[in-house]
Specification:
By secondary structure, the protein is mainly α. The protein has helices spanning 2-28, 45-51, 54-87, 93-101, 108-121, 128-152, 156-164, 169-198, 201-206, 213-220, 227-265. The chain has a single domain (68-265), classed as MetI-like (MetI-like fold, Orthogonal Bundle). It holds the Pfam family BPD_transp_1.
C-alpha cells in the first residue's frame, strides 16, 4: 500500500510538472488563435509565421551568439578552476570556490541588478557583450561542478607516468589530461549553452536595445494573436533543450565510464 501511494504521488507530481510542457505542441498545431479546448483544427502556419519573422530571427541570432560565447568562456574558466581545486592546495581555496559557486544560490534578479549598476557606473554600454558577461557568471558554477567531477575521477598515476616519460606539465596536460576529460568539457559546454539560451532575467537587464529570444517571447505575450506563434517557438525550444541536455548527459556518463576504465586498466 505504501509503495502504491508513493507511485501515485510521483505520477501526480510529474504530471503537474510536465503537463504545461506537453500542452505546448498541442496548441502549436491548433489552427485557432485562442488557447483553449476544444481544438479548432490542425495547421503548421504558426511555424511558418515563426520562421518568417525578421525580429524573431534577429533575437534568435543574438541568443545563439550569447549562448555559444558564454558556454565557451564559462567552460574554459571552469577548466582552470576545477584543475586548481582538484590538483593543488593553496590558501583561500575554499573561499574562492565558494565565490565561484555563489550564483547558484543568489536570486538572478539580484545578480542582474548588481551587474547593471556596476556596468553603468563603469560607463559600459549595454549590449550583447554585457549579456555574455552576465551569462558567463551564472553558467560558471554548473561548468565547474561538471569539470570538478571529471578531474576528480582521473587517476593521478597517469599524469605521473607522463612526467616519467619526459613530458612537461603543459604537454602532459594537453596530451593526457585533456583527452580524458574531453567528455566532461563537452558536457559542460552543452549545459552552459542550454542555460544561457533559456535565461531571461539577466538578459532583460543587460541586453539594452538588443533583443534576445526570451525577452522577445516576453514582449509578444501582450498580443493575443502572437500567442500561437509563441507556442510553436516554445515547442522548438523545448525540443532543443531536451536534445542538448540528453547529449550533455551522454557525454557526462561517457566521461565517467572512460575515466573509470582508465583507472582500473592502467596505462594500457
Amino acid at each position: 500500500m505504501r509503495g502504491g501511494g508513493l507511485r501515485a504521488y510521483a505520477l501526480l507530481y510529474l504530471l503537474f510538472l510536465y503537463a504545461p510542457i506537453l500542452l505546448l505542441p498541442i496548441f502549436a498545431f491548433n489552427s485557432g488563435t485562442i488557447i483553449a479546448f476544444p481544438l479548432q483544427g490542425l495547421t503548421s502556419q504558426w511555424f511558418e509565421q515563426m520562421w518568417g519573422n525578421a525580429t524573431l530571427r534577429r533575437a534568435l541570432g543574438n541568443s545563439l551568439t550569447i549562448a555559444l560565447s558564454s558556454a565557451v568562456l564559462a567552460t574554459c574558466l571552469a577548466i582552470f578552476a576545477a584543475r586548481a581545486s582538484t590538483r593543488y592546495r593553496f590558501p583561500g581555496k575554499g573561499g574562492a570556490l565558494g565565490l565561484i559557486m555563489l550564483p547558484l544560490i543568489l536570486p538572478e534578479i539580484i545578480v542582474g541588478i548588481s551587474l547593471l549598476v556596476v556596468l553603468l557606473a563603469a560607463g559600459v554600454q549595454l549590449s550583447i557583450l554585457t549579456v555574455i558577461i552576465g551569462h558567463t557568471l551564472i553558467c560558471m558554477p554548473y561548468a565547474v561542478a561538471i569539470m570538478t567531477t571529471a578531474f576528480s575521477s582521473l587517476d593521478k598515476s597517469l599524469e605521473e607516468a607522463a612526467y616519467d616519460l619526459g613530458e612537461t606539465k603543459w604537454s602532459a596536460f594537453r596530451l593526457v589530461i585533456l583527452p580524458l576529460v574531453m567528455p566532461g568539457i563537452i558536457s559542460a559546454m552543452l549545459m552552459s549553452f542550454t542555460i544561457s539560451l533559456d535565461e531571461f532575467i539577466i538578459a532583460f537587464f543587460l541586453a539594452g536595445n538588443e533583443p534576445t529570444l526570451p525577452t522577445y517571447i516576453f514582449s509578444q505575450l501582450r498580443f493575443p494573436k502572437s500567442i500561437p506563434m509563441i507556442m510553436a517557438l516554445g515547442t522548438v525550444l523545448v525540443m532543443m533543450s531536451i536534445l542538448l541536455l540528453a547529449v550533455a548527459e551522454y557525454f557526462r556518463r561517457r566521461g565517467a565510464a572512460r575515466t573509470g576504465q582508465s583507472s582500473s586498466g592502467g596505462l594500457l
